[in-house]
């Protein structure tokens, strides 16, 4: 018996059964207004994702492998970068982005304890946490309403002799002013990290976000544009930074061999580093205080299938955003509607919305109404991070009074536009808000 042919035949049968299973286990559901939930976000998948996942499981290659390699190559092309390194989450991607810049191998360019990193107060914690975790000092600037992105007029005030980097996210898929920020970073010789976890597919001046700075990060949590369940990526055009990111991701080792491979450098037993004896096995030489933040091949397999659907996902998000914007436009007396950053084409993660002060209802009133209608809402991340308990007493500099961040904290929230929200559900969502406003007048 040809065992290889027999195994491949069985694999084909299993994968065909998986397709049939998907059709039975995950049938389309009809939207029932007021009965069906309208969540902010969620996974959108078909038979292809489950087939790919099961296909990878049959290899029983439990670390990174062929699917991870394929994903990294294809995802780099989507972004337009040279290098993509797959990791286990977007938060880990942010951690690695900062960690890589602390490497002694960067010489005088490295980030050192006490150096300052400009960021925004109205952001997500894992954009800021790596700064503090590496004994760096976040410098909090305000956000502009209604783009919900960095107020670039504060950049000069944020600059000090200790400023070494900028790390900012593109809020809810709306690019920040990359023209101004990237030029400021260039003028002052600062590292620029773009957190693109919410912004896959967004463009600024017809160029993909994540390609303006030194390092970009992305997330594949179920809420995001594509998902692996958990997962993330770090992207860069710099071969040097790629090697450093990979080292910190893979235990801090100096070796760059992929799992299951040896002697990629051709001199595995000829290195002499640190105070180790000459010829110490390169696979066990460590140049950094690193982690193990790799993803599994099974996660990557889901991502590979999701990549095929990325264009339709982005188009659906933009269409849902437009539907909601047009429906709520007549009610700007009470609501602050979001605006794209000039020269940008957002890839909307969510629809930010704020209740104007003085309206006959509060944010809490509107959010409660939507919750009763089974419509999901979320705060815009941490609101004003400096008022979160985790940041009390932490080293930081604050530029001004942060009125924009306070506005986000008190008045704003966001609702979903992800591809799993059908047209009837989007209409119900819009009608629920409009009915509430009219009943409140």
Uncertain regions spanning at least 5 consecutive residues: none
Number of spatially distinct domains: 3
For the largest sheet, list the strands in their spatial order. 1-11-10-7-6-2-3-15
Shape type: flat
Strand content: 5-15%
Question: SSE order, as H and E?
Answer: HHHEHEHEEEHEHEEEEEHHHEEEHEHEH
Helix content: 25-40%
The termini sit apart by: 79 Å
- What's the count of strands? 16
CATH class designation of the largest domain: Alpha Beta
Number of helices: 13
Output the CATH topology of the largest domain: Aspartate Aminotransferase, domain 2
Radius of gyration: 24 Å
CATH architecture of the largest domain: 3-Layer(aba) Sandwich
Q: Considering the protein shown, what is the CATH homologous superfamily of the largest domain?
A: Type I PLP-dependent aspartate aminotransferase-like (Major domain)
The residue-averaged pLDDT reads 95
Largest sheet: number of strands, sense, barrel closure: 8 strands, mixed
Structural class: alpha/beta
